[in-house]
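Sample A.
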Amino acid sequence: MSAEFADPDIELMLRFQKGDERCFEELVKKHTRGVLNLVYRYLGDASRAEDVSQDIFVKVYRARMKYEPKAKFSTWLYRIAVNHCLNEIRSRKSQPSLGTPINDMIEEPEGENPDARLTRTELQGAVKAAIDALPENQRMAVILSRYEDMSYDEIAETMGMSLEAVKSVLFRAKENLKLALAKYAGGSS
């Protein structure tokens, strides 16, 4: 790999542009799980997420000549994924969902009593419902921030927004989540 790019995926994509199909296969292997997780969290349907993820990689394949190494490859890939998810939702008129991976985000304590387990399960459902109820741009920003671990700069690039717009969207999302989950906060905000 060339030392010119800090992101080895950029080098793979540039080699793919020049006709090396193996580089595309390597990029797909490396990023399939991340794309699938993002799509699943956004659409909430495992079989649909697999189909949509494949469609996203077909789009990447077809758009390879348009790729320019301005940012990390994954940022470009996630932007395609986000736009495809938004188009999928608009075309199907369905409500996106975080799906069940949220359950993995809250650890299950050992020896937990049934009341505590019920409370935790109720909280998981409330968090999922609250995130699902957010407006599209807020929901996607939260998913990219909390579940995909993207920085504000990466979210801005992925969503095609300014850094200030991302900060504002995430602030509004947090405020909406606080309101929706206030009864679980134990009286404090």
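Sample B.
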Amino acid sequence: MAGRNHLPPPNALKIREVSSTRAPYPSHHNHHALIEEDRYRHRSGPIPVSAGRYHPAVIDERIVIQHREIQTLLGDNQRLAATHVALKQELAAAQQEISHLSAAAASVKAERDAQVREVYERSLKMEAEVRSIDALNAELAQVRADVQKLSASRQELAAQLQTINTDLSVSRSELKEVQAVKDGIENMRKELQRGRAAIEYEKKTHSNNLEQSEAMGKNMMAMAHEVEKLRAELANAEKRARAAAAAAAAANPSPVVHAYAASYGNSDMGYGGSFYHDPYAMHQAHGGPDAGPQYGAGAVPLDLYDMQRPHAHR
């Protein structure tokens, strides 16, 4: 195809015509003359006149040979011209056919490209659908696995619910017992509050009694001091009475006066020692808030002690 589109140059015929004017190929008869001519032609310098003259027969024969070659070349030229024209026509037809074929090939290629593009797009769509189907299949398998897991979880939860219901019934029964225990605890709390109130009341009462006992102790100490003073005054009075009795006995020495002086001078006869014992010493030996009743054996008057008792037991 590349050789068909190659055109010969426009001066090809002229080149053929110029080449036809060359000397023809020498025949077998004048071979030696041509050799001699070539020998002189290749020498340096002009050909001598004697060497440039040929035999007339040789010249005629050469003219005949050249004429034949010219005729042959003319025939060849005509054939080549006809062939050239035919080739040009064939080339024009081939070019026209090539243009038609190119247009047809372009349309066929466009159709083929459109078909290929359509098939490719269909293949892409089918591949996308296949991928989506694969994804849906995987998702379906996952959903089935999840359904199985949920079924197992449902069974487990049902068992746990049954256990919880059982525990709930037990807890309800225990709750009733707990309610009874709470009621008992509430009653105990109330009793405890009442006990605390009683203890607080006892504490207050004890503190009040303690204060009253301390006040009574102070009063008893003051009374003991008064008793001591009275004892001292009584001892002084006894001493004065004894001195007076001794003086009277000395002035009147009669047995009656002596007996009276003897009886007056004896402290156990007129003033019992148990009546005037030391209550202050007993208070210090048995000191405390509860030592108040121990003063009853002393010289404290009973009416004063009876006045203090209601305050101590309030």
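B remarks: Residues 12-111 form one domain. Helices lie at 12-20, 31-41, 49-52, 56-251, 255-265, 267-270, 279-285, 302-312.
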